[in-house]
C-alpha cells in the first residue's frame, strides 16, 4: 500500500511554467507558504496541486504534468476565459474586497461566479484523482472556498483542512453577497477550518448562523451529520532565514546605501503590495499630517514606501496607483527641498534580500492596512531588526495586531492619531526595548514551520477522534462483508431518511426524495424487507414514500406502517397530554419571550421551533430553555431532543430503537439486518441491533465514522451507491415465501457476482 500523503491545493503552484519557444520553462518561487511547507515534507510526502501559471493546450498537458511532477507538484489545467472569471472576476472582484470589508469595491456578476464554480470543480476533480485512502488534504485560501464541499460530494473520505489567509468579514457584510450561502456551504465541507485570529472565527460563526441557520461553539460547528473544528492559528515566517539574509550581499548593500544616503535622517519604512486594502493613501496622509503639524521633523524624517505592483490590469488598482502617485507628488512638492525628499516611493518589485536590508536600516515601520488577514511584513520587520530593536506602528485591523502586543496599534483611518503616534515614536528614540523583545519572541516561537505542523497535527487529531482508524469504510466487495448476507433468506433493511438517504438541505421541506432514491428503495424492496425510520411526521412520509412497497416509521418511532399496508399502528399508549401539562407552559412562556418562535403539538411530543426567530437570540433562548427542561424533567420518562433550530420533548418509549426492536420481534425469522443512520436518534437503532439481534448485520454511519456503527460511508450519495449495488448484485430467489406479514418481500439473496 502506498504511504499516506498530504495533498496541498492553492490557486498558484510554487512553480511557474512559462512558454519558451515550443517548450515550457519551470521557475520556482519562494512564497511564505513554500517556506512553511518545506519542513512538512519530513512528516509526510506531499504533492502540491494548483494552476501552473498559464493556459496549457490539451496536446501539451501530459508533458507539462510529467515535468511538474519532478517538483512534487501537479497541475490543474484551466482555460483562459474560466481563469479570468474565476480569478479576476469572482475571487478578486468579489471575495477579496468583501472579505476586507470593502463592499463598494465588489463587482458581482453571474458569469464570473459560474467560472469560479467551474474552476473549483476542476480543483476538486484533480484532488480526487490524486487521493488515496488515508491521505490528508489541505486547501488554501478564499479562491478555493468551494473545494471542501465539492470533495465531499465526490465521496472522498480523507480529512480535509482549509486555511483562510485573509480576514472573514462581519456577517452583515458577508450576507450582502448574492451567493453567500453557497460559499459558506463550500467551506463547511472541510473537517477543520483555520483562521489567523479569533475575530474572524467569530464573524464566520455568526455568518453560519445568520445565513444558514447553523449554530456553533467557538471551536466547533456541528452539522447534523458531522462536526467541523474551527481553529485560530496565526501564520508565521522563517525568522532564521530572515536573520541569515541580513548578513548577505544584497541586504548589506541596501543597508549601507540607504544608511549612507539618509545619514543623519530618521528613517520610516512601509512595504506592501500596491493594494487598496493596505491603506497606503491614508498612511501617506498621516505622514503629511506629521510634517504639517510638527515642523521639527520636516527636514529630518524620510519615509520609504515600497509598493510592489499587483493586479495591474484591474481598474481599481490603476486608480489606486494614480492616487498614490499624486499624494507622493503633493507631499514632496510641499515639504521637499533641494536637498531633502520626504517620501521615497518605490513602485516596483524589490528583492527579498533588499527588503531585508531596508528593514534593518529603518528604526520605525509604519504598517497600517485598512484590513489584513495577518500581515507578514510586520513579522519580517521584527525578525530583520533583531537585536537592533525598533518601533512597529501597526494597524489594529490586521491579524498580526492580535499577536504582537509590543506594537503601537493604530486605527489607520484616524489620520491625526497615526501622525501623533509617529511623532511619539520619533521622540522616543530607539523604541521600547521590552516591547520589541516581546515581538521578537513571538516571531521566533511562532514560525511558519510550526504553524504548518500545528495545522496538520490538528487535522490528524480530527481524523483520529472520528475513529477513522477503528471504523471501516463500507465496501460490499469485501468477502467478509458480502459473506454476512450471502445466505440470508429474510433480510431486513432499516434506513434513516434525512442525512442518510438524502443529504441535508437547509430547508427541510426541500428534502423531497429524487428519482434515484425512489428507484433504489423500490429495487431493494424486491429482495428485502425495507423500513424508512424517520423523525418526520406521518403525512410527509406518506406523501414522499407512501407509494413504495416499504415500511415506514414516523416521529422517531411513534407509529409504524408495515410494507404494503396503508394503516399506521401506534406503538405506545404514551400520549402528549401529560407532556403538554408539564412542558406546555414553559414552551408558551418562551414563545412570548422569543418573537418568531412557535410551539408544535405532535401526537406524543411537543416541539419549540425557533427557525423564524432572530438567529442569535434564538440560540441564546434555546440554551436557557434546555436548562429549564433539564430541571423540569429530572427523573421523568421524557427525552429532550435538540434538532435543527427546534427543541423537542417526547416520551422515552418513543424511540427509533424501540420501534425497530418491535419490528424484529415480529419478524423472528430475520437472519440479516442492514441499518444506516447519521444522527443521535439513529444511535438507538444501532444499540437495539447490538443488544437484541444475534444474527449477522451491517450497521453504517453516514458522513463520518462513529462509535455506534461498525462501518461508515462518506455521504448519502455514497450510501445510495451501496443500496443500488445491493439491489443490482443480489437476486431474490422468488421461490422463498413472504414472511407472513402484510406485504413482506423478504427473499433469498444470492450473490451473482
Ligand atoms: C495574504 C494575506 C496574510 C512585498 N513587497 C515585495 C515583497 N513583498 C512580500 C512581503 C511579504 C509578502 O510579500 C506580503 O505578505 P502580506 O502578509 O503582507 O500580504 P498578502 O500578500 O496580502 O498575503 C495576508 C498572508 O496572506 C499570509 O497568510 O498575512 O494578510 O492578505 O512576505 O515581504 N516581496 C518581494 N518584493 C516586493 O517588492 N520579493
Quick description:
The chain has 753 residues and is of the alpha/beta class. It contains 25 helices and 31 strands. GDP-alpha-D-glucose binds at residues 32, 165-166, 235, 271, 273, 306, 308, 349-352, 355, 372-377, 380.
Give me the CATH superfamily of the largest domain. Glycogen Phosphorylase B
Query: For the record, what CATH class of the largest domain applies?
Result: Alpha Beta
Share of residues in strands: 15-25%
CATH architecture of the largest domain: 3-Layer(aba) Sandwich
Number of domains as seen in the coordinates: 4
Continuous helix count: 25
For the biggest β-sheet, the strand order reads: 17-29-28-27-18-19-20-21-22
Morphology: elongated
Q: If you consult CATH, what is the topology of the largest domain?
A: Rossmann fold
Number of strand elements: 31
- Mind summarizing the main beta sheet? 9 strands, mixed
Mean pLDDT: 90
Percent of residues in helices comes to: 40-55%
Q: In whole angstroms, how far apart are the ends?
A: 26 Å
- Which residues sit in consecutive blocks of at least 5 with pLDDT less than 50? 733-753
Q: Identify every distinct bound molecule in the structure, by name, code or SMILES.
A: GDP-alpha-D-glucose
Structural class, from secondary structure content?
alpha/beta
Task: Give the radius of gyration.
Answer: 31 Å
Structure description:
The chain is of the alpha/beta class and 753 residues long. The chain is built from 25 helices and 31 strands. β11 (266-273), α11 and β12 (301-308) form a beta-alpha-beta unit. The longest helix is centred in the first third of the chain and has 21 residues, at 110-130. The protein is elongated, with a radius of gyration of 31 Å. The relative contact order is 0.08.
Amino acid at each position: 500500500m502506498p504511504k499516506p500523503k498530504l495533498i496541498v491545493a492553492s490557486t498558484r503552484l510554487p512553480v511557474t511554467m512559462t512558454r519558451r519557444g515550443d517548450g515550457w520553462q519551470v521557475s520556482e518561487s519562494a512564497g511564505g507558504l513554500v517556506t512553511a511547507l518545506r519542513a512538512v515534507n519530513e512528516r509526510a510526502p506531499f504533492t502540491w496541486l494548483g494552476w501552473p501559471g498559464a493556459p496549457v493546450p490539451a496536446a501539451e498537458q501530459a508533458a507539462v504534468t510529467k515535468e511538474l511532477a519532478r517538483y512534487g507538484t501537479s497541475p490543474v489545467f484551466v482555460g483562459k476565459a474560466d481563469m479570468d472569471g474565476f480569478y479576476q472576476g469572482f475571487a478578486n472582484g468579489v471575495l477579496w474586497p468583501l472579505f476586507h470589508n470593502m463592499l463598494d469595491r465588489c463587482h458581482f456578476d453571474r458569469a464570473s461566479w459560474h467560472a469560479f464554480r467551474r474552476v473549483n470543480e476542476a480543483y476538486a476533480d484533480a484532488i480526487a484523482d490524486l487521493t488515496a485512502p488515508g491521505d490528508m488534504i489541505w486547501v488554501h485560501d478564499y479562491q478555493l472556498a468551494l473545494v471542501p464541499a465539492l470533495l465531499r460530494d465526490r465521496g472522498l473520505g480523507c480529512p480535509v483542512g482549509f486555511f483562510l489567509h485573509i480576514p472573514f468579514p462581519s456577517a452583515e457584510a458577508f450576507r450582502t453577497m448574492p451567493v453567500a450561502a453557497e460559499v459558506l456551504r463550500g467551506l463547511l465541507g472541510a473537517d477543520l477550518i483555520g483562521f489567523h485570529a479569533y475575530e474572524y472565527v467569530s464573524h464566520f460563526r455568526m455568518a453560519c448562523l445568520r445565513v444558514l441557520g447553523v449554530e456553533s461553539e467557538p471551536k466547533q460547528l456541528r452539522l447534523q451529520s458531522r462536526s467541523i473544528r474551527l481553529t485560530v492559528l496565526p501564520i508565521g515566517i522563517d525568522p532564521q532565514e530572515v536573520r541569515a539574509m541580513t548578513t548577505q550581499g544584497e541586504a548589506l548593500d541596501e543597508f549601507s546605501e540607504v544608511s549612507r544616503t539618509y545619514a543623519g535622517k530618521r528613517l520610516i519604512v512601509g512595504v506592501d503590495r500596491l493594494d487598496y486594502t493596505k491603506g497606503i493613501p491614508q498612511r501617506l496622509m498621516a505622514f503629511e499630517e506629521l510634517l504639517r503639524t510638527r515642523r521639527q521633523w520636516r527636514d529630518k524624517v524620510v519615509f520609504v514606501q515600497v509598493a510592489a505592483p499587483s493586479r495591474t490590469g484591474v481598474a481599481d488598482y490603476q486608480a489606486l496607483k494614480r492616487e498614490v502617485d499624486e499624494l507622493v507628488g503633493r507631499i514632496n512638492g510641499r515639504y521637499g527641498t533641494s536637498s531633502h525628499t520626504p517620501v521615497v516611493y518605490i513602485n516596483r518589485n524589490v528583492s527579498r534580500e533588499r527588503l531585508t536590508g531596508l528593514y534593518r536600516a529603518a528604526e520605525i515601520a509604519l504598517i497600517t492596512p485598512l484590513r489584513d488577514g495577518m500581515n507578514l511584513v510586520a513579522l519580517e520587520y521584527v525578525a530583520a531588526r533583531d537585536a537592533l530593536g525598533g518601533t512597529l506602528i501597526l494597524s489594529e485591523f490586521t491579524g498580526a495586531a492580535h499577536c504582537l502586543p509590543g506594537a503601537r496599534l493604530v486605527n489607520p483611518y484616524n489620520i491625526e492619531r497615526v501622525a501623533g503616534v509617529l511623532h511619539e515614536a520619533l521622540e522616543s528614540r530607539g523604541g521600547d526595548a521590552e516591547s520589541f523583545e516581546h515581538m521578537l519572541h513571538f516571531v521566533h516561537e511562532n514560525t511558519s514551520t510550526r504553524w504548518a505542523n500545528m495545522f496538520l497535527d490538528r487535522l490528524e487529531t480530527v481524523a483520529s477522534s472520528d475513529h477513522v482508524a477503528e471504523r471501516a469504510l463500507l465496501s460490499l466487495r469485501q468477502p467478509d462483508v458480502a459473506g454476512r448476507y450471502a445466505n440470508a433468506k429474510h433480510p431486513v433493511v432499516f434506513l434513516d431518511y434525512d442525512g442518510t438517504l438524502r443529504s441535508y438541505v437547509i430547508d427541510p421541506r426541500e428534502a423531497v426524495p429524487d428519482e434515484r432514491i425512489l428507484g433504489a428503495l423500490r429495487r431493494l424492496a424486491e429482495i428485502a424487507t425495507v423500513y424508512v425510520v424517520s423523525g418526520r411526521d406521518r403525512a410527509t412520509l406518506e406523501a414522499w414514500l407512501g407509494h413504495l412497497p416499504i415500511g415506514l416509521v414516523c416521529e422517531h418511532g411513534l407509529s409504524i406502517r408495515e410494507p404494503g399496508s396503508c394503516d399506521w399502528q401506534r406503538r405506545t399508549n404514551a400520549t402528549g397530554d401529560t407532556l403538554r401539562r408539564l412542558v406546555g407552559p414553559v414552551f408558551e412562556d418562551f414563545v412570548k419571550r422569543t418573537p418568531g418562535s412557535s410551539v408544535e403539538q405532535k401526537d406524543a411530543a411537543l416541539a419549540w421551533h425557533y427557525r423564524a426567530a432572530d438567529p442569535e437570540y434564538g440560540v441564546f433562548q434555546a440554551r436557557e430553555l434546555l436548562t429549564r427542561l433539564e430541571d423540569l424533567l429530572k427523573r421523568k420518562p421524557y427525552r429532550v431532543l435538540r434538532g435543527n433550530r427546534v427543541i423537542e420533548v417526547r416520551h422515552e418509549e418513543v424511540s427509533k430503537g424501540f420501534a425497530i426492536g418491535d419490528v424484529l420481534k415480529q419478524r423472528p425469522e430475520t437472519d440479516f439486518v442492514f441499518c444506516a443512520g447519521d444522527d443521535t436518534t439513529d444511535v438507538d437503532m444501532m444499540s437495539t441491533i447490538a443488544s437484541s439481534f444475534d444474527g449477522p448485520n451491517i450497521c453504517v454511519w453516514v458522513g463520518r465514522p462513529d462509535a455506534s456503527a461498525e462501518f461508515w460511508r462518506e455521504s448519502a450519495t455514497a450510501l445510495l451507491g451501496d443500496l443500488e449495488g445491493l439491489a443490482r448484485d443480489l437476486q431474490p430467489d422468488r421461490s422463498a415465501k413472504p414472511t407472513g406479514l402484510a406485504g413482506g418481500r423478504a427473499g433469498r439473496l444470492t450473490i451473482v457476482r
